[in-house]
Each structure stands twice: as C-alpha cells, then as structure tokens.
Amino acid sequence: MVLIAIADYKGQRVAIPVKEMMLGVKPHEWQSEDEYNERVSRVLNRMMGAEIDFVVRGISGRGEERAAVASRQAAMLRLRRRFYLTNGTNGKPQVYPGRFVEVRLVAESQLSIPPEIFGVYTPIRNPYLRWGYVGDCRDKYFVGDSIQVYVKTVEGDTPESLRIDVDTKSLTEDDTREKLLSLKPRTNCMGKVTDVKGGVIFINLVDGIRAIAHKCFDRRKPGRGDDVLFVCNRIDEEGGVIIGFISRIVRRNI
Questions:
Q1: If you classify domain 177-251 with CATH, what class do you get?
Q2: Calpha distance 210→180 (Å, rounded)
Q3: CATH hierarchy code of domain 86-171
Q4: What is the radius of gyration, based on Cα positions, of the chain?
Q5: In which band, very low, low, confident or very high, does the pLDDT at 88 lie, cut at 50, 70 and 90?
Q6: Residue 91: helix, strand or coil by DSSP?
Q7: Taking 80 as the threshold, does the pLDDT of residue 39 lie above it?
Q8: d(CA 208, CA 169)
Q9: Which pairs count as long-range contacts for 48-51, CB under 8 Å and 24+ apart, including other chains?
C-alpha cells in the first residue's frame, strides 16, 4: 500500500507520496507495516492546513480523478541549496548563524513547534521557545503561523546532510524575574495544572510563571489540564517559582 498526502493548489488536487514528503519518520525493526502507517498518519494529521512547497513530477488520472503528482522532498532540497549552500555577493548564503529569519509552522505538537526553515524541518522544544514555562505549545502556536527565529548553528555541506539549530528565546530579554516579583502575597491568579506528583501540584500561571501548590481547598482533586484559581503565599526567587495553594478548580479537563 502506498500512502499519499493530498495538497490543494488553487483548487487543483496534488498527490504527494509519503516517501516524497520528507517527514523524517523511519520504520522501526519491530514495527509492522500497519503500525508504521499509523505513525505516519499521525504526523500528517498534525500538518493539516499547513502551507508546503512541492515540485510537480507529473499528472495522473482522468476527469475528476485527475491529479498532479508532486514531491515535497525535491522542493526542500532545492530550497536548501538556494538559501544555505549558495553564497551571495557578500560571500555568505542567505541563512547563516547569527541571523534572524521569518519562518512558517507546518505542524502542531504539545512539546515543540515544528517550523520549516527554507527547506529544513527543525522542531524547537518548549524550553527554547520563550522565557518562562511553556506547558502546551498548541495553546500559543498554530499551523500556518509565521514566526521569527534566531539561527544558532548551520552544519553540513550538502542538501541531504544539512542540519540547523534555532530558537525564539534569543529574540527577547529574560523578564521572568520581573514577572515573578510583580505577584504579591495573597494575589489571586488563574492557572493551568501541568502535573501532580507526590501530593505536589505544578501550575502554569499567566506569562509562563511557574507555581507550586501543596494544598487544594476544592473538594475535588486537581488533575493535569485543569484550570484553577491559585493564591500566592510567597515567592521563591532562587527557584523561580511561586508557592501557594489552590482555592478552587474553575474548569476540569475532562
């Protein structure tokens, strides 16, 4: 069975075989074909609505079934040559370490955002997205968004071996301490529970401020993803966290 991804280009149906999508999903030795196809399908589902580049290889079918057959891999390799491996008049390529570039998000994930940076697919994990805590990237970043990133490193001298490292933290100054100190004792804040371990409740407050609660005065037990009303008791500057308690659960994550 041949898996294909379907793209729409100005109303024209474009079929791209999965092997030409350059997803980076390799089958494990212990996986069956069905299990591998399921993994690939999950990756493609996270890309729904994404804008991608492709090179048309031919036309297949007749009538309403007529569709273009294309390769995303060919397009990405072309972009890599153009932006990373071809020097301009200044002796540098268009993308190099130390440069800020605008890129587009082509998928969604809880723990990272996966932008395509001129032909290079480079997930950025949540600790490198911004100062402060990022619990679920899907709350702030969406497929189709354009964002700026800072290029930290570029490695490889061929389109196939090219690897880059980027982040978005470098675009802003670290203001987590100022945000932390802006909260005073007995302040009420809305937050989202990120984890519960050993009776300790971990909470993400506004602007990525982390909080810890040892008590919950709601008759219900808080769980991951619940929206809660948190009351600040004190600030742990060294640990970069607010200590307090949950006065009530506002919305359950069911």
A1: mainly beta
A2: 9
A3: 2.40.50.140
A4: 23
A5: confident
A6: coil
A7: yes
A8: 13
A9: 48/143, 49/143, 49/144, 50/104, 50/105, 50/106, 50/107, 50/143, 50/144, 51/104, 51/106, 51/144
